[in-house]
Amino acid sequence: MLRRLGQTLAWRTAVALVGACVAGGAAGAGVCPPVDIALQHATGGVWVRPARADALAGWTEPTVVWVDRRTVWIADPGPHRCAGLALRRWLLARWPGRAHRLINTHAHPENVLANSAWPQGTPIYALAGVREQMQRRCPTCLRNLRATLGPQWMAGTRITLPNRLLHPGQSLWLAGARWQVVAHGHAHTEADLSLWQPAGRWWFPAGLVAWHGVPDLGRGDMAGWLAALAGPAARGEPLPGILGGSTPEAGRERWRSTRAYLAALQSHLARASAEGRDLQEVLQWREAVDPAERSAANLARHDRNLQRAWRQVEDAAFDERPASSPGAAGAGP
Ligand SMILES: [Zn+2]
Fold it and tell me: Which residues crowd ion ligand 1, with CB under 5 Å?
């Protein structure tokens, strides 16, 4: 009981909104609109800016911060330079004199384009696959985000790629605790990183959890994503604290709902494939979407997911055919 109460207290918002009206800094960068930082204390030296579905600034994905006496680590600093500048200013005011290091978990613009708010040469860590995806996709992502959010939010934002590599299984000491770098193959995107702290059973799944609405399979792989979600969190009891929501339980709830959606999609499509169902009938199925979440945007995303996942199921079935069956991949003499 006491432990639970302690957890609840630890999770209360320690610092309220900071209306940091941040001047652009560099000449020509313009003036940024106010950005709310509102980091919440999670555990030890770990702080979270929870995911927000409706953030005007486009800062919809979670940011996690680890602080010790010398260093502040920041995973997924946000969508643009304005967000990064506001976060930097907040962190410098609260914990002055620390070195800053960034981590990019995956190549989505909402997570990584704030890199450009830190001085050149600031260490930015990522898996090789994430860096490669950023190199390939960031120019288009930057254009798209500028079109969505407008020039004021995106003022001064430029592509800043990671300059340090992380390796699967590597340990990082973050806020005095050992965190393991977990590399996932094709899951939420082509390359995803999560961070796992075995001693305290804390997990930052980053993009592997769909923090709001229907999971987006636009660049994902249904089977790979499900496998990634069964990673550290599903091993043993109790369930870990999942960082990224407003509370550990909110994080677990989103983890559960992401898994449930993808598992329902997978079993629907496997059944339809086995029964040779009509394609139109297969693609009209909407039961996996919670009735409370059936907005036009979520249903449109679900329809795109169905089409993409159906192709993945068909490709997998094609690959699994015995070599002797007609048309099987690699069939030879
Ligand atoms: Zn993402």
Answer: 108, 207
